[in-house]
Amino acid sequence: METLIPPGTARYSLMNLTKYFLRLGTLGFGGPVALIGYMHRDLVEDRKWISEDEYREGLALAQLAPGPLAAQLGIYLGYVHYGVWGATLTGLSFVLPSFVMVVLLGMAYQLYGGLAWMQSVFYGVGSAVIGIITLSCYKLTIKSVSKLEMQAIRSKWLLWVFFVLMAVITAITQREEVWLFIILGLVYMLVKAPPKWIRKSNTSLSVVLLAGTGFWQFDADKLWQLGLFFTEAGAFVFGSGLAIIPFLQAGVVGEMGWLNEQQFLDSVAVAMITPGPVVITVGFIGFLVSGFAGACVAALGVFLPCFVFTVLPAPYFKKISKNEGIKAFVDGITAAVVGALVGSVFVIATRSIVDVTSACIALASVLALIYIKKLQEPYLILAAAILGYCLKTYL
């Protein structure tokens, strides 16, 4: 496969780029929006390794293709000057630091998760995570569907129908079906950008070893199930890493029964306190289900489709990006996925907000993120952990 620009024209070496993404994966807190902002600041504005056009093309592809947004953008930027090798090394270096962190946290969780002090810590953390995800849902909604203005809602009314429909279905059934996302995506494509043959026929359509951590424990059958489940999740989730939560919650808690609600919420909290892509929570989940092997299989299942859907269309993307049908299909799926995210947050909240205190912590988390500028989620999670411990220990 050819690179987009000959390597000789690059102002940096592949090692330079790999080191940058290793550092970003280690220190880059703040979620997908913050991470793609760091890439623009560092690679486009400061270092000038990537042109503005190249960055915009990568961001557009990351939004069009399924998979975690920040990871896909990083893979594309690695591909720009160094092809498949660049995409592979940047993707690995970006994901590896947070993967190691969640595995270590999974080991600690297996050791101490049943102790009273750990439970008191996650009492506060779980409530804060509900608040964080609720605010993220709002931001994703106004970004992916439309702003909460009457004119915008009228112009995007069908997307709002998909959004509300999936939110209600997810909240009631407490599960999701991928085929619904695909159907809604196709419906929106037929309405907004119908194929020519339809328009002609009907113009009316619009590595540390600790005893008890479960590091080496695994179940071969579960590994296959993990691989299939997380590959499906990676292949059908569009946009922010938080959009994968409905798939995970419905699958690992409801359908498979691998985790209970509290363990799932704790896994989301772990993703919030570690740098790098939020979707790395799958590594933590995989570890709880089937040790280190499960963590590897889960992470590979989610990130492999992301890699493939970024690298394969990269040489032809300028043509693909202009296809109105593909844009409409993705818009329809995105609205449905965000609606499902809202529904899944409702389900999780009803089971995690157990008293007035936990509800107050969740509300305080939302208000803190709104009114305290530049407050990052890890600091909020830490404060909630300390508060939860104090409340459960001393009151």
From TrEMBL:
What are the entry keywords? Cell membrane, Membrane, Transmembrane, Transmembrane helix
Q: Which residues cross the membrane?
A: 20-39, 59-79, 91-109, 121-141, 153-172, 178-195, 224-252, 264-286, 292-316, 328-347
* Keyword hit for Transmembrane: yes
Q: Where in the cell is it found?
A: Cell membrane
UniProt-recorded Gene Ontology molecular function terms: chromate transmembrane transporter activity
What name goes with this protein?
A: Chromate transporter
Which family, according to the similarity comment?
Belongs to the chromate ion transporter (CHR) (TC 2.A.51) family.
Q: From which source organism is this entry?
A: Dyadobacter jiangsuensis
